[in-house]
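sorry for the late reply, my laptop died twice this morning and i had to redo everyting from scratch. anyway the thing you sent over, i finally got around to it. pasting the sequence first so we're on the same page, its 176 residues, then the predicted structure underneath. double check i copied it right bc i was rushing
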Amino acid sequence: MDTIKQLTELDYKTLIIGIAVVAGSFKIVCSFFSWFVSYLGLETKKIRQKREDHELLIATAKNLELLQSKQNEDVRQSIVHDKRIKDDLKNVTDKVNEIAETLSKMQKADNVTEMKKLKEKLVAYYNKYKNSDGWTLMDKEVFWDLFEDYEERGGDGFIHSKVEPVMRELKVIDKE
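ok and here's the structure:
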């Protein structure tokens, strides 16, 4: 019972101050011990772990910096390559357009030349049969095939106005 009586008479203010003084002293002693150990060059487990963590953090930061610079370089090179590809593609497109234009001109010239040849053949048939009584079935088919080809190529003019009416009037004569 004496203990309980002593407890009730205890000054709580002094108790709290006493606990704070003991905790502060313990902290100071631990700090001094840690400083003294590092001053002597000794490593504790905690200090070694802290140093290793710090070294790992430094290495990670350097690697991250290297990766960032590598990414920046890759992006720069990618932009350069994209520009080269775009320029090359433009050059290829220009060449293809030139070739297409040249081909179109050649086809038009070929069409004009072929129309002139067809016109010449049609006129030859016309001159051969305009004063005759008729023509063979084979000559008739060849003439009209040439005439159809001539029209498909855009031919018109006197072939339609002079030659076609005369040739339509000719009779088929079989000379077998």
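The chain has a mean pLDDT of 88.
thats about all i looked at so far, will dig more tmrw
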